From TrEMBL:
Species the sequence originates in: Corymbia citriodora subsp. variegata
Membrane-crossing residue ranges in chain numbering: none
Domain DJ-1/PfpI, chain residue ranges per copy: 7-210
PANTHER family hit by this protein: PARKINSON DISEASE PROTEIN 7 HOMOLOG (PTHR48094:SF12), PROTEIN/NUCLEIC ACID DEGLYCASE DJ-1-RELATED (PTHR48094)
This protein's GO CC annotations: mitochondrion; nucleus
Pfam families: DJ-1_PfpI
Domain of life: Eukaryota
Signal peptide span: none
Xref: InterPro entries: Class_I_gatase-like (IPR029062), DJ-1/PfpI (IPR002818), Prot/Nucl_acid_deglycase (IPR050325)
Biological processes, Gene Ontology terms: glyoxal metabolic process; response to oxidative stress
Protein name: DJ-1/PfpI domain-containing protein
């Protein structure tokens, strides 16, 4: 019997860090120049680090509070088109089937996630439904913010051991979360996966695969990518 296909929802905002996004996603449509959106001829850029797609998963991105509904202007000015322009556009059937919510970093994007009621609600819903939530870099701050709402309850109120980009470490520690040793590049505590930054993005994505599909599947992906045991 064939293994069940996993689905992943990856968040995207203006200021999202490109490497952290594309490592968990198959491709981006890169738009360059100042041409009006209807005149663009997007170039399809296949990410060599497209780990969740390489695993055979159904991966979709969702825009959060985008200044232009057609694309996100990322941290290094790469423009990425989301599959769903906003959280309200996510089909219920996909949301119900999604196995993991992935939240990339990039300081401006992370701040947007922290201020989005839709994002904070998604984090709480995934945690209370027993699904995985994976956050990298400054994205971890959205997890911290998610438990502050009066409506937070159940599993979604629990603090756990995490890591993040060093720039937001003190903010997380001050909020009362257990912060991992800086040498830990990816941290798994229950169904919360966190990591540190662009340089740990491949290991982060491989860990997501391992947690949901097993170590054998993660190793199957690691080999062809010529990926070291630790990155």
């Amino acid at each position: 019997m064939a293994a069940a296909q996993h689905s992943a929802l990856v968040l995207l905002a203006d200021g999202t860090e490109e490497i952290e996004f594309t490592t968990s996603y198959e491709y981006v449509l890169l738009l360059v120049g100042a041409t009006p959106i209807w005149q663009y001829e997007p170039r399809l850029i296949w990410s060599s680090q497209s780990i969740l797609i390489r695993a055979g998963w159904n991966v979709k991105s969702v825009g959060v509070k985008l200044a232009n509904p057609f694309f996100a202007q990322c941290s290094r000015n790469v423009r990425i088109l989301p599959d769903f322009p906003s959280p309200h556009e996510i089909p219920d059937r996909f949301l119900d089937a999604a196995s993991v919510l992935v939240i990339p970093g990039g300081a401006p994007g992370a701040k947007t996630f922290c201020k989005s009621d839709d994002v904070l609600r998604l984090i709480r819903e995934f945690r209370n439904d027993g699904k995985y939530v994976a956050l990298i870099c400054a994205g971890t701050t959205a997890l911290v913010e998610s438990i502050k709402a009066p409506e937070a309850e159940g599993e979604a109120t629990k603090k756990c051991k995490v890591t993040s980009h060093p720039s937001v470490k003190q903010e997380i520690v001050d909020a009362g979360w257990t912060y991992a040793d800086d040498k830990e590049r990816v941290v798994v505590d229950g169904k919360v996966i966190t990591s540190r930054g662009p340089g740990t993005a491949i290991l982060f994505a491989l860990t997501i695969v391992e947690m949901l599909a097993g170590k054998e599947k993660a190793e199957e992906l690691r080999g062809p990518m010529i990926c070291a045991e630790t990155i």
